[in-house]
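S.,

As promised, the SN-glycerol-3-phosphate run. Input:
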Amino acid sequence: MPHDWPYPFWIAHRGAGRRAPENTLAAFREGAAHGFRMFECDVKLSADDVPFLLHDSDLERTTSGLGLAGERPWAALAQLDAGSWHGALHAGEPLPTLQAIARFVIANGLAVNLEIKPSPGVETRTGDFVARAALELWTGLQPPPLLSSFEVPALEAAAAAAPALPRALLLEELWAGWFETARRLSCRAVVTHHPLMDAALVQTLHAAGMRALVYTVNAPADLAAMRAAGVDGVITDEVERYAADARAAR
Ligand code: G3P
Ligand code: MG
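Predicted complex:
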């Protein structure tokens, strides 16, 4: 079994899943209010290299903007409404910088999994800048942010820029060479889409010194299967359903 894993079992997806606008400070507050101590969020770069939170490459779904987020400078992105799409109660909620999220997470003693979610074509640059920013923002603090990505070039850049920050390889499928890649990048964990994970895979990862995490586990039956498989953590949207579990696991 791998050791030295300072992170909680329960991880709120995109801040608080669907209860607040994803990847905003409002979502983190909602997740924390439901007892969650760790948060997954998606980090990309503005055109002028400011790391900020947004899942999609396009602005349409979750903001008042149009077009590619990565083509806008932060000054323009900061003007957008990232809350109204979710509901009027969140009207005016801004896109958060990674710095703003770090401030909240650190002040409240929370942990974070920063998914490096590059705009297409800037994978290496995003991994580099996000890792450097994370290193600076969390200097000397525990636990350090866990950096993850589906994009191998982004993880490679993060490893080069901040070798001491823990990394996780995200897998939507078990593509040829994933295990060797995770080992080569000295990943501390592998995070798979939950149907890919089973007891044998958990054992393989543990034997290699890596933790086994899964996304996005919402249904109780899926949670039971993942617990039976022996996973080390789950990323969930269901912060209300699992609030008591998250609190009990502290
Ligand atoms: O980090 C796990 C999970 O967030 C990956 O999927 O699309 O929600 O970023 P996605
Ligand atoms: Mg994500």
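The chain has a mean pLDDT of 97. The chain has one domain: 10-58+96-248.

- D.
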